[in-house]
Write a structure and sequence with these properties.
The protein has 139 residues and is α+β, with helices and mostly antiparallel strands. Helices cover 50% and strands 19% of the residues. The chain has helices at residues 42-52, 74-87, 92-136, and strands spanning 5-13, 16-24, 29-37. The protein is elongated, with a radius of gyration of 24 Å.
Length: 139
């Protein structure tokens, strides 16, 4: 039976502390980013995850291999996690997923603003026509 997997990484990207949420589901891999500002404490992180996790806007799912979960000695896992953050920081897969999400939001915003502009020009055109008709009728 396949299980959903997820991870949450907190790192410093000057001038803010940023959290990168990654998840692997049946559809594939997706990521989300949240900015904390000041360095969050462990208690604040746990509280935030409990209350705000469901509000995260994850990127569209992309096919990808799930990480293999193997039991490790806790001290070894801690050492590996420290080394991974020191060397790599945010995974490039997460960066790609977030950039795709940013692109899609930009395209959506672009289409919405284009539509609003078209509606505004149509409204102005109709207003000019109305004024022209009123002027012709002598009003």
């Amino acid at each position: 039976m396949d299980r959903n997997a997820g991870s949450f990484t907190v790192l410093f990207q000057p001038p803010f502390w940023v959290g990168i949420a990654e998840r692997w589901e049946e559809e594939g891999y997706s990521a989300a980013r949240v900015v904390f500002g000041a360095e969050p404490t462990d208690a604040r992180l746990y509280e935030w995850i409990e209350k705000e996790w469901h509000r995260l806007r994850f990127s569209p799912a992309v096919e990808g291999e799930r990480p293999v979960k193997e039991r490790k000695n806790p001290k070894r896992a801690q050492r590996e996690a420290r080394a991974a953050t020191r060397l790599q920081g945010v995974s490039t897969r997460a960066q790609e997923a977030l950039s795709r999400q940013r692109e899609q939001e930009g395209l959506l915003r672009q289409t919405q603003s284009r539509q609003a502009r078209q509606e505004e020009t149509e409204r102005k055109y109709l207003l000019r026509q109305e004024k022209k008709r009123a002027k012709k009728r002598g009003r």
